[in-house]
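Hi P.,

Sorry for the delay on this. The queue was packed all week, but I finally got your sequence through. Input first:
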Amino acid sequence: MKQNFKIGVVVHFFYDQQAQEIVGLLKNIPFKFDLYVSSSSIAHKAIQPLLTEAFPDQRIIFRIVENRGFDIAPFVCEFKDHYASYDLVLKIHTKKSSHARWLRGWGEYLLKNLVGSTDIVQSIIKMFQDDEKLGIVYPEIIPPFKEFLIRDPWQENWILCCDLSSRLGLSIRKNQQPDFPAGSMFWFRPKSLEPLFKLGLTVSDFPGGRRIRRNRTLAHAIERLFVLIAGKQGFSSRQVCFIPCVYDFNNRSFLQKAKRRLYEARSSLMEFFGFYR
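Then the structure:
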């Protein structure tokens, strides 16, 4: 496949322990790309030499950022002026989901379905080549989240989503189950999300501090509106699943159901008090 697109890759490193894994995945991109990297000052010390050595011929832009807004704040605020220079951008980040054992394979699932092999990358790029109105490609939502979304479509983010939608000129309904890249990793055409980057959000708009809620933040509202923003721009979205998640999310045993119920109760308490990501 010829490289018909100019490609950018934006990566947020919260966990520098996953840097080597990210390097291996990025090497699956069989085309030249520019790399935009955000991280804390501590993580930067570990990942800067690693990435520079791994990609000596690539253009790499590093940004040291505050611990605000998870991966979304750096994505929206730090590099927004660069995206228009590219035909396609890949957005990924390190992810452990350590708050729930049965979600620990989620990050790996998302990454592998976006950049898990050269064939996967080429397949996704071909989707964009074949459909000029395709704006976003992201992995299918994992089954447990689909269950949560049926019960609570906006997952306590409704008020924030309403406010943000109003600013973006979007129309949403409370009983509407939104399609969105849960986990906020995806390929996209910059034009499809242009209104978000022009909204004028700054890092200070995102909550900071050591205790970060897993819901009810601006970052979670933005995540749920990516597809709707692209749609208003006249672009479609597409879900993919090249490599199914190895965890048995469809296990319907009594024990598994009990574990999920306990997890939901525990999450509600931790949501109330706030906790680390």
